Amino acid sequence: MSCDDYAGDSAYGMVENEEDNYDEFMISGDESEMEVEMEEESAGSGQEDFESHSPQPDPLEELYAANLAQATTYVQEQQLPRALEVLNRTRLQFESRAVPIPLSIFLLRCHYKLWERDPHEKGLFQQFASAVSDLSSSMPAPCGTDTVLVVRQCLNDLVPSVGCVAVIDPSSIANKDTITSRKVCLQQMASIGQQCDAHLWKTRLLQYQLLELQLTPGDATDTTQQGLLHELEQLTSPQLDHLDNVEFLLFWYLHRSLQDGSTSAPHVAHEKLPDLLTTVSGLLQTSFSRPLPLLATLHFGNAYILLEQIQSSHSAYRQLSYFNAEIWESYKCLEEIGNKTKFHDLTLCAFILSNMLLMGQRTDMEAIISPFELEQLKVLESQFSRDLENLYQAFVSYDLASFARGLQSIGSFNHVLQPLVDSLTHLLQVRKLWHRVAACYSTISIADIQSMLAVDPLPRLSRNSILTILMQSIMNDTAQVYFKLDLTRDLVFFGEENRKPLSAYTKDSYLDARNSIHRDAGVSLKQWVDNVGVFNMGPRRLKNLTPLAFVQELHNAREQAAAVDPTLQSRTLKYTQLAEYVRDALQ
After folding, report:
1. Which of 79, 156, 328, 343 could make a disulfide contact with 168, Cβ separation 3.0–4.6 Å?
2. Residues 483 and 555 in one domain
3. Are 361 and 454 part of one and the same domain?
4. How many domains does the chain have?
């Protein structure tokens, strides 16, 4: 294409634009007004056409929505009869059309709530059963997703899962009429539940059957309960959508263990609880919601399974520390909930007792901060918290009489916290022995020690128990005062004045002492027996030393010759000769 072609095209375009602009410019004002009027008329006719073709609102739908809102208000105001009146009037409007599923479910819920108030009224039950039948007949053959969700929500509202709320507040499941009514509700809704969510309906029914058996022990047998539990466990898997069933099983075993007079439950609980606690902990890690009742029960359960391992404050210090931390987390959850039930007192008691056991490892009681200085405990004003504080003060002041009274004030929890109570009592007796008795007496009989360490109404420590405490204190290297025992007179000698160096003479020197030639250089028979022939042994720690190794060291020391007097120590020690002397002395 040449330059002329480009020029021609350009010129042509310019001429055309000029003519168009000129024509537009020359249009008169009258023509413009006429054109605007025509546009308005065409727009108006289009709007009329749209309005004539738009669907008219359905008066029945408007009435339905208004009546549902009014009925909801009545339900919130606890005016169920008026709500039912509105709903029944609305239902009559749908005689020629299918009744909406939400309306049928609303009617069912109101009839159930009204019957639940008076479960012995047969007329109210018949109305509820009729509402269930109406809902069942109006449901489509294959339930849609929306219907399943609505029915599932209805089941959860009318018959909620029994979870860990029942652990921290047992009164929520103490009414047998309520439990029975909910079980009957599930039985009446069997066809609906099986059609929409068979798993939810079946597991929820098993929960309430177990609860009803628990509230009527005379009608229940262990075989029946175990059968229902086994069936529920088979239907429960470690999945997030089965958390309500896992939570119920956790509640069941823990609640049974905490019940008064439950003898076999603790054994079953210690078999089942660890796996259930692990499952719940794993499910909560993948869940967006972390309900405080479940967290409180989870932390308490983690601590509860350690109780049997807390035999003494020395051998189970790590378990005791973990127990204390878990109990404290449980208590904080309960405080956040605002729970003030017996379970709250149990958790508080467990925390204080475990804190006292941990505190007992310290030697300087004055440097220890009281747990009642914590902000969460300062605000407590209940009588039970004051009883616990008195128990704590008795412990730190070694007042066994006040300590015994404090134990009686927490007696309702002894069946649960018995390992803690036993360990704490033993620890206080040991501490009083070393910090009060041994520090004040140079010589005291074992019988007097038994009397001083008595905690009524508990049985007194036996003679062997006192000797065990003394010897374990040596082996654990926790003896606060040096002591010696006189088992022939059952006396204990406390104090450094009894720490005398052992004789430098062995059995050989005793044998030489019987000869007149070496009598002056030898040692007396009494002195040799008192010192068991051990001499010049350097001080050493006996902690973690087995009894066999200890006896072997004594044997080796007796066999060795004394460096200070080698001429008198040529014979080996013979235990038979020592036994003969003891026999002769006793005769």
Report:
1. 343
2. no
3. yes
4. 3
Predicted TM-score (pTM) of this structure: 0.72
CATH number at residue 368: 1.25.40.570
CA proximity to 400, closest of 426, 419, 369, 371: 426
Residues 6+ apart with CB under 8 A from 60: 93, 94, 97
Nearest 5°: the CA angle 401, 476, 302 is 70
One domain, residues 470 and 439: yes
pLDDT, average across residues 311-324: 74
The DSSP secondary structure of 380-443, one letter per residue, reads ---HHHHHHHHHHHHHHTT-HHHHHHHHHHTGGGHHHHHHHHHHHHHHHHHHHIIIIIHHH-SE
- Is 377 found in the same domain as 459? yes
- Asked if 457 and 555 sit in the same domain, the reply is no
Tokens of 111: 């009839």
| Cα distance between residue 407 and residue 311, in whole Å | 18
Nearest to 461 by CA among 500, 432, 503: 432
- Rounded to 5°, the CA angle 470-476-479 comes to 50
| Structural domain span for residue 522 | 507-586
Could you tell me the two tokens for 461?
């420590």
Total residues found in the chain within this entry: 587
| 235 touches 202 (CB < 8 A) | yes
Structure tokens at 105: 């479910």
Residue 309 is assigned to a structural domain of this protein: no
Start-to-end Cα distance in the chain? 147
What pLDDT, in 10s, does the model give residues 192-250? 999 999 999 999 999 999 988 888 765 556 788 889 988 999 998 887 778 889 999 99
- Answer whether residue 426 shows pLDDT above 80: yes
Reported as a single tens digit per residue, the pLDDT across 349-378 is: 999 999 999 888 766 656 677 888 888 888
420 in a domain, yes or no? yes
544 or 111, which is more confident: 111
